[in-house]
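Fill-in record for 2-dehydropantoate 2-reductase.
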Amino acid sequence: MRLVSKHHWHVLGAGAIGCLFSQHLASAGCAVTLLTRGQPQSPCARIRIQENGVTREAEVAVAPGADRGRAAQLLVATKAPDIAGALASIEHRIDAETDIVLAANGMGFVEQLKDMLPGKRLYLCITTEGAHRLAPLHVCHAGRGVTRLGSVDGLAQPSWFADWPGGELQQCLWDAHVDIAAWDKLTVNCAINPLTALHQCRNGELGSSPILRRKVAVLCDEIAEVSIARGRSETAEALRTRVQAVIAATANNRSSMLQDVAAGRVTEIDYITGYLVREAKRLGVNTPLNRELLSEVSALHG
């Protein structure tokens, strides 16, 4: 049995990843409070995680973000475009000792938050856990992956990291170079997500369709050039193999970007392909297909 943790985690974002990690932290003995935009119907709620026919549950507290009360450990699991607004709405809960863990796809939001919350302790959570929402607070844990946490400023591993490894997170690591993990994940997302969103297809079709397979190859070539210019030749060398492996392993999955488009939500394209294209421009690398996909997916927002 795991010992009860002394840490109290407040969580912004009750989507698939927010619920997955909330249930995990609660099961590890942490106090967990979901922060809501409005007044919740009840001060507590039960999160259900379904995996291979087995359901695991955890009861968590629920509170309005607008209420007073300090957040010592804050997990932000919203979509990347929503992070700044979500944090602004609970800024009164954040002080100099708050640790803010950001679990979102893409890159670029850290720079925004450093301007918005100067001096605050920011951490990244980069995960390849597969999860999708079945209903409010009910999530399917569709695939096990690796979760890496680390400080964006190179701070030492904090005591609260002990809450994370074990249980359902069988591969959870402290990563002193979490920025590299973020870039590596972004490169794979750039090669997969926009194409699935535009062609309304599951990941596997990027490997089975000759036309889409060629587009993936072109994207990988462009992304590899940006990686090399950024000093990440290791990422460039492994990119095609990693992308092909992800496509095969998640063949039946619908990417988060495809799900957003299907639901009429704003996508994270500006923090995925948009970030890559901005980096390419800064480094003097031409990325015509990535620019084209950025424009086409952005146009879907209306």
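KEY FINDING: DSSP finds ten helices and eleven strands in the chain.
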